[in-house]
Amino acid sequence: GEGSFGKIYKALDTENGETVALKVSRRSPGSENEVHILQKFMSSRHCPKLFYSSKDDMYVYISMEILGVPLKTYRYKSKGGKLSMICVSLIAIQCIEALRDLHEAGYLHLDLS
């Protein structure tokens, strides 16, 4: 996947054979701060576990847990390619809970889409 702050790849951890999400972002204060936020929140059910992070002169690399099935998979399997109102409601509740947890810790999420 690709967002405004980086690309996420499905990758293989060669040390343990597990499939992970590998986020690659241009190095910036925001991308480096993301590692600290993930470390702080990875015990939350709304946050993936951080396995490893690294950086070079241009990029920050974050290896983390893959969280479930992508939403587009649900869309493809659903009737007419649309999610049910119940499914959308459950997803919205989880997003709101995650944002609440971030806000309670003093953080704001700036890339909601």
From TrEMBL:
PROSITE patterns for this protein: PROTEIN_KINASE_DOM
InterPro entries xrefs: CK1_Ser-Thr_kinase, Kinase-like_dom_sf, Prot_kinase_dom
Domain Protein kinase: residue ranges: 1-113
GO molecular function, one term: protein kinase activity
Transmembrane segments: none
Cross-referenced Pfam families: Pkinase (PF00069)
PANTHER family in alphabetical order: CASEIN KINASE-RELATED
UniProt protein name: Protein kinase domain-containing protein
Organism: Trichinella nativa
